[in-house]
Amino acid sequence: MTEDPFSLAGRTACVTGASAGIGRSIATALVRAGAAVVGVAWREALLDEWMGDAQSLGGRTAAFAADLSDIAGLKAVAQQVSALLGPPDILVNAAGLNPRKSADGIRAEEWQRTLDLNLTAPFFLAQALVATMRARGWGRIINVASLQSTRAFPNGIAYGASKGGVAQLTRAMAEAWSGDGVTCNALAPGFFPTELTAPVFDDETAARNAAQTCVGRNGRLDDLIGPVIFLASPASDYVTGQILHVDGGFTAK
């Protein structure tokens, strides 16, 4: 282990969903911890905005705009990402979609796009990037799971199915690759104010969710920084296949 087990100096990371919300917060946190970071998202203007903010911190950053739900294009995305700052040591799969449709109302194309972006893309992007990690004998894959990985919420059937899959995918990836030094874990955030969760924060639902936690409040994006640095760094060398709920104790009650 390095002298500072939480240092990411000399590491390169790829963060999907880096244009907004949780993905953007994670990408910036990895820059602050010393990693070179490639942000990937489909909204190029917001991605460039993130890169400008991250570069002001003095870090090495790059951005690549791509639609990750285009599964056939993921090998090309991996090649482009690796060409920008070098093959990543760390992959964070934070891009996601929640159509918020009922079981009766969800359409086949909405279901498929949700599974493609939330579940299929994280695996095949990791599959395309893991060879270099294995050759080096060190790598970190961090997926973003959810409270809905284990709980059913209204109008969440497609999202919940995808995030339940992410939890099992994380364990299966850990089984496949951890023997070669590539660990795989997942963060499962509680309720955080982001573009994706805006409908939950529009009414009294936010207060009810806060009351359900052990700490008595909803999440702040800064609450994710410590957990993600832990999972991305040598500090977590012996941690793999785990789902870390960063939810203020919501799932404990």
Walk me through the structure.
It is a single chain. The protein is of the alpha/beta class and 253 residues long. It is 40% helix and 15% strand. It has one domain (12-247): NAD(P)-binding Rossmann-like Domain (Rossmann fold, 3-Layer(aba) Sandwich), CATH 3.40.50.720. It is built from seven helices and seven strands, in the order βαβαβαβαβαβααβ. It has a seven-stranded parallel beta sheet with strand order 3-2-1-4-5-6-7, sandwiched between helices. The longest helix is centred in the middle third of the chain and has 29 residues, at 108-136. It is globular.
Keywords:
253 residues, alpha/beta, Rossmann fold, 7-stranded parallel β-sheet, 7 strands, 15% strand
Number of domains: 1
Q: What is the helix tally?
A: 7
The strands making up the biggest β-sheet line up spatially as 3-2-1-4-5-6-7
Approximately how much beta-strand content do the residues carry? Answer: 15-25%
In short:
40% of the residues lie in helices and 15% in strands. The chain is an alpha/beta fold. A seven-stranded parallel β-sheet has the order 3-2-1-4-5-6-7, sandwiched between helices.
What's the helix and strand layout?
Elements: E1 12-16, H1 21-32, E2 36-41, H2 44-55, E3 61-65, H3 74-85, E4 90-93, H4 108-136, E5 139-144, H5 157-177, E6 182-189, H6 205-212, H7 225-232, E7 243-246
Parallel strand pairs: 1-2, 1-4, 2-3, 4-5, 5-6, 6-7
Helix pairs in contact: 1-7, 3-4, 4-5
